[in-house]
Design goal:
Largest sheet: none
Radius of gyration: 18 Å
Number of strands: 0
Order of helices and strands: HHHHHHHHH
Oligomer: single chain
Strand content: under 5%
CATH class: Mainly Alpha
CATH superfamily: Tetracycline Repressor, domain 2
Number of helices: 9
């Protein structure tokens, strides 16, 4: 995954990207700071300069993924010259390519990392919850645009469409990981949109 996050020191960025992949490959609980140092090539002292603990590193990984998703979603919401369906498909195509690159590990990074986080409430879990509270309104806005432009019939509200789409796509992301087939993501999205015509 390549995200242009300026002002992040190179070593810090390398550690975040390496940790993200290790958490998907081995699991957060089974990844040590020694693993991160060995795979990233960044010394442990340098890692601890940027992150006080492994949980701080997990929070940084979640923020990194949040920024990646935020940029993709913004592109979808504001590209108003295109149909809503084509913008949704473009957004999901980007996710599908990333899932394939990760060899179907962590199809939804946020659900994967939430399940791997410590049981008690943590900053990491709060960050993930906050991400989802912002994601659904973005989908609601997209579907409202579709209704306003006459692309969708509007038999159900944009709020209902956004909520149902989010849960449907989370299921499709999980199935893509289980079946090793990212085409399920796009097929599900297209079928969902067909029901709104």
């Amino acid at each position: 995954m390549k995200v242009n996050q300026h002002k992040i020191p190179l070593n810090k960025k390398i550690v975040i990207e390496t940790s993200a992949q290790l958490f998907f490959d081995k699991g957060y609980g089974y990844t040590s700071m020694d693993d991160v140092s060995m795979v990233s090539g960044v010394s442990k002292s340098n890692i601890y300069y940027h992150f006080k603990s492994k949980e701080d590193l997990l929070v940084a990984v979640i923020e990194y993924w949040s920024e990646y998703y935020r940029k993709l979603i913004e592109q979808a919401v504001y590209a108003k010259t295109l149909s809503v369906e084509s913008r949704i498909i473009s957004f999901l195509n980007s996710l599908s390519m990333e899932i394939s690159k990760r060899e179907y590990k962590g199809s939804c990074p946020f659900i994967t990392l939430y399940m791997q986080s410590p049981m008690e409430p943590t900053d990491a879990k709060r960050k993930i919850t906050f991400f989802f509270t912002r994601l659904e309104p973005a989908f609601v806005e997209l579907f409202q645009q579709g209704i306003d432009q006459g692309e969708f019939q509007g038999k159900i509200t944009a709020e209902s469409m956004g909520s149902l789409f989010l849960t449907t796509m989370e299921g499709a992301l999980l199935l893509s990981e289980v079946t090793q087939d990212s085409s399920k993501i796009i097929t599900t999205a297209k079928n969902f949109c067909k029901m709104l015509y």
